[in-house]
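Archive record:
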Amino acid sequence: MSTKTPKTLLQIVLVCVLAVSIGVAAYHFMVPKNGEPPVAAVSLVVPQPDATRIFINFGETDPRWRFAEGAWEVRKNGETVSLAQVAADREFPVALLEADQYTAVDISVRFRPISGKGDASGGIIFRARDARNYYLVRANALEDNFQLYRVVNGNRIEIASIQTSPPSIGQWHSLRVVAVDDQIQAYLDGRLLIDHRDGTYVAGYIGLWTKGDSVTDFTDMTLLGIRK
């Protein structure tokens, strides 16, 4: 029997370990709700040369905000200025920034679910045609899932979902969504959890969203986007 066989096997094992290590460094792994195998996704990036970066200051009055539903108000707590949705009796409160429309976007916001018995949610709207047609990524402090929706004529259609630990009521959390062409990636607290393709909407406005009796704060909203 050749004495080279163990050495060869060891080399193969080392190569496999190295390959896996490189893969872990280059990819994010996600486990879908339906229990399918983990999905690896390279992080999307909005092309920088053509993009505009905007910090949205809720402390400055901007007439381009359209509060289509809900009761939205500016709050100040020390150095933190937030836009809060405080109505607890609306179906889907929506706030749209009807300024420029964007194709590729990288949007982030911090949100704090304050209260809610049926819902305690917060979400980012993107590629909105209007207040009834848009994409939405949302988290809910009362549910252990993170979801991406396509909203058509006011009707939500779930197109991606993953089980995850819910955000905590009364605590600040971060949401982020990146959309380039028909690929959409969504993050909760810095973790890439959703990677999905859908080509229904290619451009539109950005905005914020809550549901039902959610009372939610939003602050530190930023946008890196390519104008339509």
Remarks:
- The longest strand covers residues 94-115.
